[in-house]
Each structure stands twice: as structure tokens, then as C-alpha cells.
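C-alpha cells for chain A. Residues wanted.
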């Protein structure tokens, strides 16, 4: 089984203190303890944050314009 983490956001005034890192790592530890594989879906430009925490993979999703969906 896998569990999807849909990104993490920290209020700008609290950024840079490691809070997001602590939350993600604690959640991942719990998920792994339960036998689940943590997967992350992150906002553009934030992949480096997750790579630094040990996530691997590549950005695969691209924006789709409204016109392209009906083509």
C-alpha cells in the first residue's frame, strides 16, 4: 500500500526553521512503520525539498491548458 502526501506548506514567517522537514519526516516514519510507501505530489519548484529528504523520482505531470483537454 502507498500513501499520498500532497505537499506541505509552512507559513512564510515560520519558514527556514525546519518545521516542514520535521512534519514530512515524522509522517514518513509513521507510514513506513505501518508498511505503507510514502509518495509525494508536490508543487512546481518544490521537488528539491523532497529530494533532500530522500524522495526519488522525476517530475512527470505538465500543465494542461483548458483547450488541450478537449482536443
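Reply:
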Amino acid at each position: 500500500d502507498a500513501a499520498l502526501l500532497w505537499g506541505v506548506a509552512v507559513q512564510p514567517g515560520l519558514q527556514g526553521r525546519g518545521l516542514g522537514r520535521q512534519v514530512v519526516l515524522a509522517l514518513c516514519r509513521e507510514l513506513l512503520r505501518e508498511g505503507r510507501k510514502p509518495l509525494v505530489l508536490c508543487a512546481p519548484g518544490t521537488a528539491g525539498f523532497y529530494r533532500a529528504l530522500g524522495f526519488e523520482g522525476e517530475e512527470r505531470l505538465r500543465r494542461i491548458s483548458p483547450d488541450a483537454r478537449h482536443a
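The longest strand covers residues 2-5. The mean pLDDT is 84.
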